[in-house]
């Protein structure tokens, strides 16, 4: 049989080398993730030890006797050397034990599982708003550089960097809730809907749809849309600014000039030739913005009485509840790590050169 037209056989051992390379990459990824998380544990542990708050006193109260204080200190393991305390802390974290919260009287891990979904839901909607508006605005500003539209978009971005979050939230409540009645007020639901939906994911929009409670779903939408829009405005400013910067760099490249000389429609030049190369750096921008929304929503949650992790962290700080503070800080840091790693994976998927 003539073998000239047959496809070449893979070299011996090629598949095996591919499997080894894939396993090595996956192992390196897991090891990097583990070491980064271990570093985060070390930082949170030593921050908890240098803060001038006595965790024993927060538990027993300032009227406890010295004997009661010493017993509680031994029970909490704070009489041991620092390195032994750290090992115990790491072991407890990896078994899901973040201690008890003084503020709520419940395990911190249980509190976080209740409060984090609310923050995640609001921040996710905020980043979707920021991307849906910020990317087109940034592209438009770059395509019409120097025009009045470009100036307006840049002013909007400047406001996003300059306006305090709490002020914008209060103005939004006064205008859209108190005066116009377009949105719901503070909280996740009206009080007569509270507790009617059994939690599944902890995110009220998803849980209400799962349970078929359409009225509760729309009530939740009316409450979340304003705080999510405020968060989305701040992410919009950052995303629009970075998109504009990336696009200006691409629009000055020779391949864009060549496409225009060849008569390629301007819309195709902008969205295919110039926009495609910036998708990769935009992933990093969006990832950092998303992590920032999850971490920086403390003011928004306070203004809107949103029962999220930011509100929980603020309450814990005011009550000197160090277990809750360290647990919330650990979760926020872990979110940063995971989002950065996901961004890195997407970077490799979209850019073959990174592989």
Task: Describe this entry's structure for a reader.
It is found in: Cell membrane. InterPro entries: BPD_transp_1_N, MetI-like, MetI-like_sf. The relative contact order is 0.13. This protein has 355 residues and is mostly helical. The chain has two domains: 80 residues, no CATH class; 245 residues, MetI-like fold (Orthogonal Bundle), CATH 1.10.3720. Helices cover 72% and strands 0% of the residues. Helix 5 crosses helix 15, helix 8 packs across helix 9 and helix 12 packs antiparallel against helix 15. The mean pLDDT is 82.
Please supply descriptive tags for the structure shown above.
mainly alpha, MetI-like fold, 0% strand, globular, MetI-like, transport
> Helix- and strand-based class?
mainly alpha
Distance between the termini: 39 Å
- Strands, total number: 0
In the CATH hierarchy, the architecture of the largest domain is Orthogonal Bundle
How much beta, percentage-wise? under 5%
User: How many helical stretches?
Assistant: 15
Question: What's the helical proportion of residues?
Answer: over 70%
Number of domains: 2
Low-confidence stretches: none
The ordered string of helix (H) and strand (E) elements is HHHHHHHHHHHHHHH
């Amino acid at each position: 049989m003539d073998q000239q037209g047959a496809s070449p056989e893979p070299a011996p051992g090629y598949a095996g080398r591919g499997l080894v390379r894939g396993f090595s990459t996956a192992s390196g990824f897991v090891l990097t993730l583990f070491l980064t998380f271990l570093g985060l544990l070390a930082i949170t542990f030593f921050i908890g030890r240098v803060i001038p708050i006595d965790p024993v006193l927060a538990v027993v109260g300032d009227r406890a006797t010295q004997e009661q204080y010493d017993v509680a200190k031994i029970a909490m393991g704070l009489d041991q050397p620092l390195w032994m305390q750290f090992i115990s802390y790491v072991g407890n974290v990896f078994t899901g034990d973040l201690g008890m919260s003084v503020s709520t009287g419940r395990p911190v891990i249980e509190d976080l599982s209740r409060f984090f979904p609310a923050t995640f839901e609001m921040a996710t909607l905020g980043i979707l708003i920021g991307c849906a508006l910020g990317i087109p605005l940034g592209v438009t500003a770059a395509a019409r550089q120097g025009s009045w539209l470009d100036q307006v978009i840049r002013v909007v971005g400047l406001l996003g960097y300059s306006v305090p979050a709490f002020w914008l939230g209060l103005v939004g409540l006064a205008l859209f809730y108190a005066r116009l009645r377009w949105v719901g007020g503070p909280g996740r639901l009206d009080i007569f809907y509270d507790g009617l939906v059994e939690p599944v994911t902890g995110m009220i929009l998803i849980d209400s749809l799962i349970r078929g409670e359409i009225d509760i779903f729309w009530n939740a939408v009316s409450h979340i849309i304003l705080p999510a829009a405020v968060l989305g405005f701040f992410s919009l400013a950052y995303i629009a600014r970075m998109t504009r910067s990336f696009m200006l760099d691409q629009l000055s490249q020779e391949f864009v000039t060549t496409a225009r000389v060849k008569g390629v429609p301007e819309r195709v030049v902008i969205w295919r030739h110039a926009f495609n190369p910036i998708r990769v750096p935009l992933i990093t921008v969006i990832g950092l913005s998303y992590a920032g929304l999850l971490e920086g929503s403390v003011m928004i949650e306070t203004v809107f009485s949103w029962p999220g992790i930011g509100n929980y962290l603020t309450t814990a700080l005011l009550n000197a509840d160090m277990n809750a503070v360290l647990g919330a800080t650990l979760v926020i840091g872990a979110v940063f790590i995971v989002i950065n790693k996901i961004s890195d994976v997407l970077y490799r998927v979209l850019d073959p050169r990174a592989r």
